[in-house]
Amino acid sequence: MRMFERVYRQSAITKVRASGIVGESQYVVFEDGAVVIETPKGVHRFNNLLELMSQARPSSPRPSLRLV
Fold first, then answer.
1. Helices vs strands, H then E, count in the chain
2. Which of 1, 7, 26, 42 is deepest in the core (most CB within 10 A)?
3. In degrees, to the nearest 5, what angle opens at C-alpha 66 toward C-alphas 68 and 12?
4. What is the average pLDDT score of the chain?
5. Cα 35 to the chain's mean position, in Å?
């Protein structure tokens, strides 16, 4: 299966809950809670949304991404 610019083994993939594009970045949220984000600087994987939010840096006010 090809996702973003990488090839992932089918056994490593679970069902996708949500996916989309924000600016130049793409994101995928899996049923098991894992989140994968591809930015121009690289691909980042988080085990769950709490881990993602703990890595977030405060920035200027701009539209936010709400993952449900």
1. 1, 6
2. 26
3. 55
4. 76
5. 4
Are 38 and 5 a contacting pair, CB within 8 Å? Answer: yes
Contacts of range 10-16, beta carbons closer than 8 Å, 24 or more positions apart? none
C-alpha distances (whole Å) from 29 to each of 1, 2, 14, 33, 40 are 16, 16, 10, 7, 19
> Tens of pLDDT along 22-43?
888 999 988 888 899 998 989 9
Alpha helices in the chain (DSSP H): 49-55
Query: What's this model's pTM, rounded to 2 decimal places?
Result: 0.61
